[in-house]
Amino acid sequence: MPDPSSATRPGASPAGVPPDFTGTHPFALQICFGDEQRRAYVPDGAGAVYGPGLQLLTNATEGLLAQAYGLSRAQIHDAACRLGVDLPYLLNVACQTPTERFAGRLRELAVRAGRAGLDGDDWRSLELFKSVIEQVQGLGPQVIVRAAISHLAAGAEPGGPPYGQLLGYVNRALAIHRDRAPGFDSTPLRGVEGIGAEGVQLWWIKEGSATIVFRVLVHLSGPRPPVAFALNVAKDLTAAGEELRRVGADLAELHQIDPRHVVRPFGTHSVTVANWRGPVTVPLLAAEWFDGHELHVYADSPLLHVWQDQRMGKDHPLAPEASDRVWETIVRLGARYTRTTPDGLLPLASHINAGDFIVRQRAADAWDIVLIWCRRMPPGAVPADFIVLAGLMAATRAFGPDCDRTVWWDQPERGLAAMRAGLEQAGLTPSQVGGILHRVHERLLATPPQELQQHPYLAQFDRGDRDEMRRVFARACAALGKAAGGSAQIG
Asked: In this predicted model, what pLDDT tens digit does every residue of 305-360 receive, in sequence order?
């Protein structure tokens, strides 16, 4: 399961970049990051230059560290702390420097921390950490920013006029405004002269498990308001890049199925930029910008909290009944987006604390919910089991320092009804849904309690209170038993 902190505020890091790092353009270009939209790559009052920095390991990095070398993120973090820095610092250095320079920086940090050198365990751990970054071909923040700028400056077609990509995205955003607000002046831009004096803002707004998300805000000449779109840039050239391309295809398919609740993708692309390894081809995904807020859950209850403008915290909780209705809608949408393929059912595995859903308040007691990122179920999972348990035992890992805790919605009857409705909306007949529930119920009853945490769905949350998981599981099986017409005795 992705780390719940995959929705995180960008960190600042010193940026030793050349004066022409962002290039020259026929309009003003502003790069910013953080909640306060801090300006990047321009001197501050003290003459220092800062830019955004990476905060999170990709799933592939964490997986390789654990599977190949038996190392955890906590061990790398502890080794970094003994050098007087943190894991994000080492991550940024590792992604932006060759191995020899990374090793040299470790020795410098050891001296600065008053250590004659690194002990054997720390040295080995950090060498392996750098090795994994090379295996996944992790990208540093400056390459990611450069890729975003270069893509927007490229022609819409090979050899086409510059900034064709940017203009194409602006015109698609204008068309969306026209569809939603009749009378809006959606006259398309014919060239960059249609961009206003305030120019273009590229805001590094969020770091996900696989991508950096930019909000691109384009000011238009004349009285029209600015328009925005999202640009995701992959954080590595292997697994994260593959996930980005797959998500682009999944979003395109699901948006056709349910345009109201799925963000509209503009397409996946790639751009070649310079890197210390040499030229690299970086995957990108553009999409409409849905002007809403992330939902998150904390360890103390399943109550949903709205992050206003990416500001993390519990300042904006939903009312309990509104929170339950949003949970219910997300369960229904998860089942609704089940696809039937030649290989069988393909479930959706997106979840709340990864920032996969965005909400916007439409009225005093009404919320629009939009899926912005698609995830697949873990390898080895039985699709039907995964779908049913995701409805009956809707859960997420807590956000923040308690991310080893699992938060259960724990309303199995309501979840079951929402999941059943979603599957029927996906095209399954009531008879087919009933057959799925019956077969899953039989398999779950045969699962010994001590093996529950090994189930591919429940293994995503196997870090917290197992007694609590068994209690929730028993309630879920009882509700499923009634729906499936069977007994509900758990061994």
From this structure: 888 666 666 778 889 999 999 999 999 999 999 999 888 899 999 988 888 999 88
Q: Helices (H) and strands (E) in the chain — how many of each? A: 13, 17
User: How much is the pLDDT for 19?
Assistant: 59
Among candidates 258, 276, 398, which has minimal Cα distance to 334?
Answer: 258
Question: Rounded CA gap, 280 and 258, in Å?
Answer: 35
Q: What is the C-alpha separation between 372 and 348, in angstroms, rounded? A: 12
Residue 4 binned pLDDT confidence (cut-offs 50, 70, 90):
very low
As a whole number of angstroms, the distance between CA 26 and CA 441 comes to 63
Q: Which one, of 241, 287, 284, 53, lies nearest residue 153 by Cα?
A: 284
| H-type alpha helices, 199-311 | 239-257
Which of these, 67, 66, 50, lies nearest to 12 by C-alpha position?
50
Q: Which residues of 304-322 are buried (b: 16+ CB within 10 A; e: fewer)?
A: bbbbeebebeeeeebeeeb
Distances in Å between the Cα of 435 and the Cα atoms of 15, 35, 256, 332, 349 are: 58, 49, 28, 18, 22
C-alpha distances in Å from residue 478, one per residue of 117, 441, 444:
59, 9, 11
CA distance 161 to 122: 51
